[in-house]
Amino acid sequence: MSNNQHLVIISLDSLGFRDIDEHQSELPTLNKLVKGGTWVKKVTGIYPTLTYPSHTTIITGQYPSVHGIVNNTKIQPERRSPDWFWYQKDVKSPTLYDLARQKNLKTAAFLWPVTAGSKINYNLAEIFPNRIWTNQVLVSLKASSPLFILEMDKKYGKLRQGIKQPELDDFITACAVDTIKNKRPNLTLLHLVDMDSMRHRYGVRSDDAIDALHRLDHHVSQVVEATKEAGTFEDTNFVILGDHYQINVDKMIHLNTMFAKRGWLVSKPDQTFKKNWQVMAKTCDGCTYIYTKNFGQLERLRDLISGVEGIEKIYSAQEAAKRGADPKCTLMVEAKAGYYFTDESDRASVVEKVLPEMMGDADRYQGVHGYDPNKSGYKTTVIFNGPMIKSNHTVEKANLVDEAPTFAKLLGLKFPEPLAGQAIDDVFLN
Ligand SMILES: [Zn+2]
């Protein structure tokens, strides 16, 4: 049946509509894919526009409120560095890769978020983003395909230096290229993070970020070449997508510092706080969740938050859920462009400027995401190219939730339950 069908999905983390719009002519590979394929220009992300929730939406077609990955990290206020949602067991919706496996299609994934512990045939799971590949090989072994990860590390481990970029993407691309050539997976999921890292550190449209975009273009060409060597190019549909864009920032908002001053939580010197909290902020950078326990002063809380500099909007739990975010929150607070939230509970002031000398410290950024997907100039994008795709065609807009049903159609698969979006039919040749 469909065993000679191939789909390669490459996520270039933080790729925006603007990147292709402004730099297409300088990017030989992406330019060729756009011209020979269909470019869906403006894609509206999901709320919060974070990497783990977005990547889970991309392969389930559901909003975070349904698939369960409502943030990058778990609620662990007593820990300075909470666990990320690494494991597939936290995903409550069917995934594209499980559907593919059920039809006996071969699957491979390289740093695709929230796939640890999954049944993907060849998987290098993203785990311990702060320490991955350093001294955590054993943890990674448990979370990925053990023999596969050992083989890849033996062959290409020399390319990486911990999680340093661009070396990590070089390593991950080499692993994907090797796997495409030798295993010919039907579905390949590849996540490259170089540009997102550069944007956080140096700003959204900095030279460093645009240099990373050029490196990513080269990585895409290596993957396309691999399918030619594997003899699968003619049967492969390619998708190059972003998960969200970024916005430049220069001020932080520490709502937990304000809550600590009111006595609603007890802060500790390491900026965490004690378990007996009544009100806590749990950041998504451009927005933040507010959770409460046994707390009766909701109006006062709203008034206090709305008086803070840089606050754009406050959503109730019902409104947050309607936008696809965590229905269990008490409030969801959106920052104005230029501001972002931290969870820090013991700062000198609630609003603080981000200074150049802070760069390199934890949670100090020049660019962030997480904002409302409808913020101005903030759309992501997706490019389709291959035997099932119209060439020299553009589609003006779509939603991130429309991608999974489109991918299912490209592999001849069907999700078992209704999805939030629908296939982008205009990309397909008739
Ligand atoms: Zn991302």
Explain what this protein looks like in three dimensions:
- The chain is an alpha/beta fold.
- The protein folds into two domains: 6-245 and 375-427, Alkaline Phosphatase, subunit A (3-Layer(aba) Sandwich), CATH 3.40.720.10; 250-364, Gyrase A, domain 2, CATH 3.30.1360.
- 31% of the residues lie in helices and 19% in strands.
- The chain has helices at residues 17-23, 28-35, 51-60, 64-67, 96-102, 137-143, 146-156, 167-183, 194-202, 207-230, 255-261, 298-306, 317-322, 403-410, and strands spanning 6-12, 38-44, 107-110, 122-124, 187-192, 236-241, 247-248, 251-253, 279-283, 287-292, 311-316, 331-335, 339-341, 351-353, 367-368, 380-385, 393-399.
- It has an eight-stranded mixed beta sheet with strand order 4-3-5-1-6-16-2-17, with helices on both faces. Strands 9-10-12-11 form a four-stranded antiparallel beta sheet.
- The longest helix is centred in the middle third of the chain and has 24 residues, at 207-230.
- It is globular and about 65 Å long.
- Residues 129-136 have low confidence and may be disordered.
- Residues 13-14, 51, 196, 243-244 line the site of zinc ion.
